[in-house]
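<backbone_tokenisation>
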Amino acid sequence: MKNSNKSSLLLNLRFLNLPLISTTTAFPVDSLRLEPDRPYTIGRSKLSSDFTFNNRSISKQHCQILYDCDNKRVYIIDGVFLFSKFGYRVVVDQFRRRLLGFYDDEFCKVKVSLNGLFVNGVRVSKGEVKELIVGDEVSLVCGNEDMCGLRTLIGFSIQNIVFEEESDMCKGMPLLRVGVSSSGHSQGTASSGNRNKRVVACRVNDVMTSGCNVMKRAKYLHSWCEDILSNDDPLTYIRYLAGIGRGVEYSHGYMLNELPSLAGSKGKFPKLGKTKKRRGVSISGSRPPLCDRSAKVLEPCSHSLGSEKEAALVVTKNLESVQVPADNINSNDTSLLSNYSAKVNPSCFGGTIPSEMGADPYSPPGKKFYLNRLEVMDGCSGKHNVISLPELLHPIESISRIFIATFTSDILWFLSYAKIPCHIPVTIACHNTEKCWSLSPDKRTYMPYPDFPNLVVVHPPFPEAIAFGKDRKKQGIACHHPKLLVVQRDNSIRVVITSANLNAGQWNGVTNTIWWQDFPRATVPDYSSLFLQTSEGERNQDLISDFAAQLAGFMSSLLIDVPSQGYWIAELAKYDFTGAVGHLVASVPGIHSHRTLYVKADHLASMFCNNKFHGSVEASVVGLSHIFNKSDSNGVQLKKLAAFLRKSHKNTIGLLEVVLRRDSNVPADANAVSVLVSNPDEFSEGDFAQLGFLPRNIAKWLSPLWDIGFFKFSGYICPQEALEAALGENNKKFELMLHVFQGPHFPDISKMLQPEHAICLCSLIASIQRCTGLWRLQEVLGQYKWPDHQESDFMYGCSSIGSSVNAQFLAAFSVAAGKKSSQFCDSEESDPEWGCWSASQELRNPSVRIVFPTVERVKNSHNGIFSSKRILCFSEKTWERLRPVGILHDAVPQPDDRIGYPMHVKVARRRFQSRRDASPFGWVYCGSHNFSAAAWGRQISGSSQRLHVCNYELGIVFICPPSGTTGSSTHKNSPNLDDIVLPFVVPAPKYEPKDRPATKRAMWEALAELTEQERKKVAELEIADDVADDDDEEDVVEVMDYVVEEEKEDDKAYAQMLWSQVDSSQKSL
């Protein structure tokens, strides 16, 4: 029958809150006229939708609604069908098949919305079709107004459904679609998810006179009744028929806990009776596919269609294949289908895990990493190590709190997709260019969703030192780019390091690496584990794990100045991290000095010898020039200071210990701390020359921790710099090095710690100087001697290559990775540059190979350029600089089922092998660091060695050390290095002369070459407005040499206020 002879349908609607706009008229509509067998798209985009809701939480193409004229039914699906080959001629078949629970993603894919579709408060599963009746309420994004972060529902309810009939006899006598409950009343479906049967009914006085399809529908229902009455097991058969109305829930198969009530004595289901064809689908004499009772099934069994006339059901013991006979398909369907098969794997599910699974069934990867489960892999990726976000968080019920650090984030998607209860405390640290540069902590923290009162969003601070011209208003190249999840439970804590940002595209459509490890709860809290561990003044990585200290240091740098979140650092002390299988490598933005990273034993001789040393803090003295320039007209105090400095004893590196005095009675600031130089004369006890004060931002956390006795502090200065500052010869900041020691009440922290102390502890740990970026990588890998002559490959795969990647950066990274000049590989010279791999050597003999996709590979991916243009970053200028060096290699995804999908991984490996039959050794890195100076840092010149780091980053290094070397015993259970399967083909194919990387310019040129038809297709698939830009972190401006930091005006004003109030007669504490 031609469409012109078919009836159309009119849906009368009532908006929930926001009006539905027609893209044709640009006006709100309260009814939809649906032509038969044509899908209508509801979304946000005016270009790709028929009707729109104007709200950013709505996807560009959110859902589709269709009127099935032959069966007089209205269907809705979450997302849109992507018909790349057959067009709309198969759309009705696909809607019908999915209503019955038959899915075929290979034949016809569905792009689902980000925030979901709800019918009567129940979320529609991915790819599921629901039938709509009068009274149904359809909501987009949220299913319950009380739980909705938007504070309002978006959608509509169906007031009535009017069919415009095919014959003249029916004109003026529209049919109404109603829902019939057990009581016979018309009503919507309850939120329990149980769907009622749908019927078509004419007005009672019109039935006998109309030539409508009522008689056809009546016969149709009558045949169902016949089947029920003639069946050997009517009750089970009715349940099966109800399952068809429910869609996926029953037609996919029964859950294990339902089987006993339906199965026979031997676990087999009773015979249903003779075969009858109903609704265009044959109901076989055998039971529809059901889950094997003996199998562990995580979701209703997936169905697939077998070859023609095949046996009714084939289920293997391990559920590797499930097939349904072709007789169960409408004859119109089989002409379009050949052979549908799907794998059912216990680890493959769509986000819901039955409660009977209990504890987490997924073992941590150890010294390896997994890849994320792509959306196209549902039900078929058992042989490779893959995992999804819901699997990582399972079981949700036992989670106490969650911490997340990410670059981009779609919080509503995360809450919905992972089914996060509204009461769980969730802290999300994410990037925001404006707010991360704000000086006000209040502007960097907010609670966006009243319905999730314990969800806090934090924008970590960027230091002024890395801003352009040291001016915060001009901002700078900086990016909060880590991908970290910390999931706390009562008996364990899970640390997850991934390359995926917190949005649907990254977890479901792009290849990312995922590593995690669970750490048990400690018998007693160990707060010393949060600090750098020393042995006779030296770091000893081989014997002492610093995983907890590195994690605490990184998290505290994100949460500094956020009082409500300081408890996170104290919580880490409750768990035992000594079993960590890898070494954390973090980058924290700032200009870092190398001289404060280590403290030798003889430097500690004059300190608190009976207290454990916990690290150093780079601080300063404020107000030094005030007293000598304005209050010392005759120079008496200046002469006194000079005498004290000249006679005082200096340590082996020329630093002088000063006295720190608490000035708790100063009205201007109860946390004030004075800095004094004592008279070295043994007969002049209590005689001091005051230099100034600690800055307010240091004193505010130091004083509470000092007062309660958790820590003690000592300070060191350079005498020459003190005199220069006193004389006012320059305006630079006068540096002071603080050393931190255990105080008398340190063992009682767990008993005495109050909320106000927790944020102070967080600030202290954030301020402790640690190796970061390249220096941290060098610290970890420098434990071993790596034989350069046995190196077999050294590669780095990433999604972004910084514009500062030049010979100097390549050499610096190679040095951090353990590479040395062959001429001086065994040198023991004290000069840190002696024997190091240089930029000139790097140019002559390139070491590291960069793995990055060619533009042709990107163009040939499933969705072409648009699938990669927002996650790949490589400037044309940098390509021209690196092209002559010949270090670029193509990124070919592996395993094979990932070919054609973008990669967002950041993975490095350096591999060694002494001989062909020997086990390889080396190291592997995975995490968030791209190959850029912004991520790893750039060494700059100055008075001392310094490292300029722009980004927050986090990754982990797995080490398989060479046998017989120091520390190899610690790694005796290490896997073979080749057991760590990389996400790209190795060896990666080197660029041919004609190859070109997927630079920004290359991708835009490729877009310009598309035909009009291809552009239209790309526009339909584009999801850019649903997900924010990703790794666009290109450091396009070269970092200038280090400029000495000057004393800030705020610090001067603070010191002047203290000078006017301090009681100089106070004694030192």
User: Anything to note?
Assistant: The CA atoms of residues 370 and 1061 lie 60 Å apart. The longest strand covers residues 154-163. The chain has a mean pLDDT of 75. The radius of gyration is 34 Å.
